[in-house]
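hey so i finaly got around to running the thing on LLM class flavin-dependent oxidoreductase from Bacillus yapensis. pasting the sequence first so u can double check i didnt mess up the copy paste, my clipboard has been acting weird all day
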Amino acid sequence: MKLSILDQAPISKNQTPQEALQASMKLAQAAEELGYTRFWVAEHHDLPGLASSAPEVILGYIGANTNKIRIGSGAVLLPHYKPYKIAEVYNMLATLFPDRIDVGIGRAPGGSAEATEALNDQFLQQVWNMPSLVEELLHFLHRDFPSDHKFAKLTAAPVPEVPPVPWLLGTSKKSALLAAKNGMAYAFGQFMSDNVGSEIIQEYRKNFQRRSPEHSPSVLLTVSAYCAETTEKAHEIALSSLIWSISKGRGEASGVPSIEEAKDYPLSEKEKEQLEIMKRNMIIGTPSEVKERLIQMKDQYNVDEIMIVTITYSPEDKIQSYRLIAKEIRDK
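ok and heres what it spat out for the 3d tokens, dont ask me to read them lol
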């Protein structure tokens, strides 16, 4: 089973943003050593506790400090930008780090309404234009505009020997069909979805259209997972992320709390119910427990790869979680 990592560059309460970004780079180094397939960085704007506003910048940092692991965006929020600029940025990365770059595309705003307006005052219109934006980006990446197109002679330089691999990220049938229509690889965000992902992925496979003979359907599933030597410890390290989510819902702007702070955080009855609901959308346990659940999900969703997102207070707990999962999958 292929395993990969999605990182959001979370900032713990005891960290500066610089330290959080350094921790993301060290996590990518650990992922490479542990045999993970790819390491993606999310894009978020004006969200307290996250340092991932410009994934293309940190990818340069990560690429320069790793050697072979695939790196990419998870995702570039395309409605904020012009496809030509995204093609230039990711072609530049693919030139610097040959045959290692993925460009994951999404259409969410990725932040507050104010941040969305500051980035692009035509965001909603661009969301409606998402199919044409995706098509234009693909033409720039593959250099295959029709000869009579207005951009036919325009190059997104520098042109790498191996183009970035485009992925479409989503949680809906609409995103799956858009990926299928354009012959793109598809990443389904199960960790942030209540939709029936297996049916959506089936629609993607059924409707996939090859851009060229070598293209075939490719799907990964993104899940939230926490692993430790004991089930109790796994629940402890997951609690920081859970309480952080609840505190953000209250409008409390702060970083990821420590396990001790999370245990002492006062919860209403409604918030306790919310916490249990959130847990049901996570994988939490020992290596064998996590492995069993990952295999179940791989089979249930019919995917080629599972991408894991893990947010902990301690960078060491996060790396250890990924280490235990990789070892269990590899050795058993």
